[in-house]
Specification:
Number of domains: 2
Number of helices: 10
Bound molecules: adenosine-5'-triphosphate
Strand content: 15-25%
Radius of gyration: 19 Å
Strand order of the largest sheet: 6-7-8-3-9-10
CATH architecture of the largest domain: 3-Layer(aba) Sandwich
CATH superfamily of the largest domain: P-loop containing nucleotide triphosphate hydrolases
Structural class: alpha/beta
Largest sheet: 6 strands, mixed
CATH class of the largest domain: Alpha Beta
Amino acid sequence: MIEVNDIHKSFGDTHILKGVSTKFEKGKTNLIIGQSGSGKTVFLKCLLGLFSPEQGKIKYDGKDYSKLSASEQRNLRQEMGMVFQGSALFDSMTVEGNVMFPLTMFTKQSKSEMQDRVDFVLKRVNLVDAHHKYPSEISGGMQKRVAIARAIVMKPKYLFCDEPNSGLDPKTAILIDNLIHEITQEYDITTVINTHDMNSVMEIGEKIIFLKNGHKEWEGSNKEIFKTDNEAVTDFVYSSELFKKVRQMYIEERN
Ligand SMILES: Nc1ncnc2c1ncn2[C@@H]1O[C@H](COP(=O)(O)OP(=O)(O)OP(=O)(O)O)[C@@H](O)[C@H]1O
């Protein structure tokens, strides 16, 4: 579980996160949504330990990050997996090389142990024939699978994903969402995803926090978001005609 308590983050005189508090539970797929510039990426970077909030606490299964020594912080960061926007694979390495990279960097495992783990995670993300291909030789959806395999190869307790669906067609996007959701449940990971994608909200948003101008404006589940009367949330969610229709159908069904 990750507990966030009243965090503030500024850059110079610009106050970006203005006292955000929430809890992300283990085995749950948590989403951060909000308009462009609302502070989602800054918030995710605080969770990753890349930005230090000036005020407030972030606890990872009870451990307050700011109270840990440098080596304890390093160890904790090794328990975090990250899927970057655009996958961020190394172009000069094969799929297998990309997934093995964290193991070679951060563990003392033997070559055969690493190979077994890489084979296992690639199979888990349904990539069996791509080991020796380069990122440029596989589709965007496959690249995301490689990025997910790399993020889970170290058996993380925490998984952070920044726009994991960007650039994918809607069908592939749903497959990637479902894969992240299944992995979260299967390995009991605390997963936090930054997204703009309303399909993701509907499909996998077990807990959603809505940020507005650096504040947490609303939080709830995907079932609750379609019923809320919070105007900022409904403006955001129903900015597309499609979702306006979905809401209308939902209201008609309820009556
Ligand atoms: N390193 C930084 N230095 C200064 N300002 C920053 C830095 N990182 C982010 N900001 C500012 O913080 C604000 C929030 O940015 P952030 O990237 O978190 O938004 P976001 O909600 O993720 O937007 P998007 O959906 O477009 O990615 C923006 O005004 C941005 O310019």
